[in-house]
Design a protein that fits this description.
By secondary structure, the chain is mainly alpha-helical. 49% of the residues lie in helices and 4% in strands. It is globular.
Length: 269
Amino acid sequence: MQDILWTMLFNPNLDNPQATQPLLVRSADISVDMMFDTVKLEEVNPESQYEAFKKLCPGKKVEDGVVLQSLDAMPGQRVIKCHYPLDLMPPDLLDRTKVVYVARNPKDMVVSFYHFYKVIKVFDYKGSMDTFIELFKDNDVVYCPYWPHIKQAWQKRNHPNLHFIFYEDLKADLQGELRKLNQFLATGLTEQQLKNVVQHTSFSSMKSRGDPLPDKGLYNQELHQTTGGFYRKGVTGDWKNHFSQEMNQEMDKWIKENIGDSGIPFKMD
């Protein structure tokens, strides 16, 4: 979604030279700032992020926020990624800007999250998937708790400045979902331009261009080679290849206990 939005706004004709920059340099993730003062991040040294910061913010201090200050220095319209829930964002956020919220069914999401935790050296997770799922359900991994996060956005889904979208719908009909985004963003793209965006931001195309930050030290290189790296599979229903019958029953129970009467229409396949 991050690259889709950037491409729709700034590269619908696929001729913007800035598109060759790493994704997380031209469209930063503001929730990464909380990791820049950790020992782990110092060990892996995301040099591309630091270089972008130095160019945009000469003389500024890293400890005052690498991404925050970089985004503040970027001119004009920006695409900002964030993993925070709405209640950790400015209370008037939806009154001042457009927000696209992407949700994924919790079974596929936790499988993807597990692989992410293993391949990214900042986390460097060594445990089993069973243990990770328990940690996730107990809100003991970053960006949790899951249910308040998604419920807050779902409750705001009818706000004119919030576009709620399911990952499964993107995979089922990418161009159709881009038409909805085109209307939401008022980008006025033609069908050909939307086709350009579809081609450029398909999972295989993004994977072929490399990781969103190119710094090899960020990734467990052995896992990067064997499991697919940052861009692993990009499919729906992959949880079926990972869950035992017992794990699936436990996840079903957890989902039933927490989804309540929210009416969130998850697609598990």
